[in-house]
Structure formats: structure tokens, C-alpha cells
Amino acid sequence: MPSVTRSYDLIGFGDEVPGILAIVAAAREYRRRTGKHLKSLIMFKGNSQEGVGGHLVRGGLAYLDRSYIPAEIRQTYCLPVFGDPVAIYKEFLQRAYVNQVALDPRQADVTLRQMLSEVGADIISRVEIASVLQNAGKLTGIVLTKGETYLAKQFIDSTVNAELAQAAGVQKLQGFATFGLPDSELPVTLAFETEGLNIQKLRAIELAYLKRFTNPNDAQAQVYVNVAAGSNPTLAASFCSEMMNSQWALKSLYVGQDHADVRCKALSIAYHSFRGKKLSLSESGAILDQANIAILPGDRLSWNAFLCYVTGAQAETLARGAAKPTAAMLNEMQFIEKWLKSLGATVVRPASELYIRHAGNIVGVVEPLRAAQMYEGGVPEEEALGTFGYHLDVRGGITGLGQKASENGLSSVSFHEPPLFNLGIRHALVRNVPNLAVVSPASGFEGYACAAGRIVEFNTAVGQGVGIAAAIALVSGRDLATITNREVRQVLVQTGQLSQIYGRPNYLEASRMGEFETAFA
């Protein structure tokens, strides 16, 4: 069979939402500048027949993490609850009919395909990189295992493990190697949807469990708690005390407009006692955690709750395997299905791919991003392309971080104040492969910075900037790595797309984080 070579202006490797929207932003800016159509391609490892849009679509992660904006900042700037997202993310949410946080994966797939179609982008899926072509450090093409070659002038990698960047020789640190913990990694999630169990019914079930678990005279319920606690009386007592707030009211689930937050471990205890397994991620390898639930049309609930423990090496392997769940994960999912059906669910449908939160970080970017800089307020206002706020929360924890911190004389690894920071693109641009950007949790984040840096809303803001930078680079015959935040901002201002900028320094937390990061350097 003769080999096929196709040429493009811009190739996106990976179909995560930030990467897709980066391509759309690039195509629109290119057309604005030249009146011409940008030749662009999205290629990814997953199967497009299962949807386009990475872990939000095939991974079924319907509950979106949104920007956290303190009330006083919202009042000062007259901002809605999640602030003022960048223009392309706002457009995506509107077109996908997102009310607050619930993104229906089916609608997201339709919307992303429409946006790519409008700019004439091509899509190919189920690809494997055989090798890459390079000239004087720059990427010039991708050779696939099927024999086709795809050439381009600029490249954007949106994969969680920076797979194209790695193929191009960019060094990627495994796990949390930036903390000296390459074997430690955040857990992965197999999201699932249920039908037949509406949120009111679920709330009633949880409340019944809560009343029983907090009643010391209910002997059978205390047996269930003891099983989930692995027969550890201290852990059992902490489970029960966490079920009530400071006013001794039961912490039943919070129901919002289109979502619900499970605020205690009652449902988790019920499941783990059913399984006869301790509610401990590191010891049991998988847990049903406190769920974030998106309420979707058609009596569907989407659960972000089933966490699986992985090492740094395992996260990389899963990412390279197109994020497919393992046999052990699917086996545990069968128990979750059985338990949920006993509560009244008629359908329990796991996603076709995993949500991999993090799989290491690249080094050698134009300007790495540290958490201390986030606390300092991020990039200067005159360079800012948007603002984002988020708790530096690492769901499931980082194995070994507490021990390593105490060895370094640090008493705490917790940072409870969320930074609110202005963002740019320089941590996504690769210095030694200057026509490549990595827009994903694997960008040039150091230490705790990836906790906020892994969130889709943040990466989409960066992606919009990188897309515009790619258009500037293509029109001016430059490399992506030479484009500045100011040049991109100028375009956003000219086109009326610049969102409000409201980053705020928190010097106390910046100083604490600076000491923390220095201790681990």
C-alpha cells in the first residue's frame, strides 16, 4: 500500500476540550488576519465513534470544575458566581446548554463537532505515533503506525501525558517528580451514569443511612461502619463525626440547579460495607468516594466518585493505552452496578474511557508555572489573558508527600486558600521544540501548580491564547515559543474577546508556598 502524506498548517494531537478549542481559536484568528481558511487537523488515540472531546465526552466527566471567585471580588467586579470565563469557553458552555456545572457528554460531542466543522478542521481517531519528523529542533511531521505522514508548521498537544511532546524528545517527569515523588500520582476515575435513581430518591436513601450510622444504638449500622473502617475504631469514630456539621446537623447531600455534592461518607460506607472492603484508596486500591453528581436530561445522573489508585508509571501506561479502564476496574464497576441497582437504579453505564487527572509534567518550557506564582496573582495585569481561581486540592492525596514534608521540617502540606490568578501561555510553550505547545495538565507546572493547572476551564483559557499565538506565528513565519502574552492580549482586546481581569495576590500564602516549594526543589 503506498504511503500517504498530507500537509496542514496546524495539527492538534489529542482531542481534549482545551486542544479542540485552541484549534478553533487559531482558525478564527487566521481567517480574520488573512481572509483564508486554516488547514487544521485534530488527531487522537480514542475512537471518534464514542464521541469527540476527550475525558469530558468519552470519559463521561459531566460535572465541570469551575473557577472559584471569592464573594468580595464578585461584588467589586459585578461578576456571576463563576466569574468571567474566557470567550471561547463561555461560547462552548452556552452552545452545549450548560446551566452551571453539568455538561451532557452527548451534547458536548455535538457542539465540539459543530465548532470544528465551522472552521473546516479534519478529524482522525485511533492513531498511534510511530515516529516524528524534525528539522533543526522543530517538529515537521507525525508518522503514524498505519504508515501515513501528517506534516504541519505548528503543533498543539492536549494529551494528559504530553505524548506528542515526548515523541519529539521533550523530557517529561513522571508522577510528582517535581516533589521528588515520581511513583506517586493522583487517582484515576471511571465515571458512570445511572438512570432510574433521581436526586430526590438518592437524597432520601442517603439520609436514611446518615440517621442509622450516627445512631450508636443501631448495632447493625455500627457493624457496617466498622467494616468500612477496616475494624479501626478511631477511623470509625472519625467517619461518624464527619457526618455532622458544627451545629450537629446531618451533612446530607447538597442539591444545586444541575448538580449535587455529596458532603459526607455515608453512601461510601454503605458501599464499602457491602463490598467488605476498607474505605481506603491506598489499602483497597479503589474506593467509591464522596460523589460529585451532574444532573442530566432524561433522568440521568453522572457520578464522579469511583477512584482507582495508580502509580506514576501506571498513569503513563493508561494514558498511552487510550485511557481504557483495566479488567480490575471493570470488575469493581460490576459491584458498584449491583449495589446501585439494589438502591433502585435501572441502568448503570460506565464511561468508555478513564478520567486521568494527571500523568506527570514536561520540563523545558519558556516559563514554568509554580503555585507560589499563582498565589502572587499570576502574570502581570497588562499581560493577562484571563483569570482563574481554584483550590489546590489533590483528590485522593499524593502518597509520601506528608512524610517528605516532615523530613524537610514542614509541619503541613495543606493550602486551604484558593489562589486567584491571571494567566498567560508561556508555561505551555516548549523552548527546545519551538513550534509546539502543550495545553494540558502536563504543561510546565511545578509541584502544587498542577492542582489548579489540570482543570479544563483553566487549560481552555490557555488554549484560546495558544490558538491565537499559533495564528500569529503562522502569519508572521515565527515559532509559537516566540509569541508573547502581550501579543495575544492585543488580539483579544482588538476583537472584543478579552474577559475581565481580577487576579489578586495573597502574599501570606505565596510566602508559605514559596518555602514549601523551595524545600522540595
Description of the molecule:
There is one protein chain. The protein has 521 residues and is an alpha/beta fold. It has 2 domains: 1-73 and 81-183 and 360-368 and 424-486, FAD/NAD(P)-binding domain; 188-356, no CATH class. Helices cover 37% and strands 17% of the residues. It has 19 helices and 23 strands. The radius of gyration is 23 Å and the shape is globular.
Unreliable parts: none
Terminus-to-terminus distance: 52 Å
Total strand segments: 23
The helix count comes to: 19
Number of domains: 2
CATH classification class of the largest domain? Alpha Beta
The CATH architecture term of the largest domain is 3-Layer(bba) Sandwich
Largest beta-sheet details: 8 strands, antiparallel
Structural class: alpha/beta
Mean pLDDT: 96
The Cα radius of gyration reads 23 Å
CATH homologous superfamily assignment of the largest domain: FAD/NAD(P)-binding domain
* Strand-residue proportion: 15-25%
Q: Briefly note the CATH topology name of the largest domain.
A: FAD/NAD(P)-binding domain
The global form is globular
Helix content: 25-40%
Describe the secondary structure blueprint for this structure.
Layout: E1 5-7, E2 10-13, H1 17-34, E3 40-43, H2 54-57, H3 71-77, H4 87-95, H5 105-118, E4 122-124, E5 129-135, E6 138-144, E7 149-151, E8 154-157, H6 163-167, E9 172-173, E10 188-189, E11 192-195, H7 199-213, H8 219-228, H9 233-241, E12 254-255, E13 259-261, H10 266-275, H11 281-284, E14 286-296, E15 300-308, H12 312-320, H13 327-342, E16 347-350, E17 355-356, E18 361-362, E19 369-370, H14 371-375, E20 387-389, H15 401-407, E21 420-422, E22 436-438, E23 445-446, H16 449-453, H17 456-476, H18 485-494, H19 507-520
Parallel strand pairs: 1-7, 2-3, 2-8, 3-4, 8-22, 19-23
Antiparallel strand pairs: 5-6, 6-7, 9-18, 10-15, 10-17, 11-15, 11-16, 12-13, 13-14, 14-15, 20-21
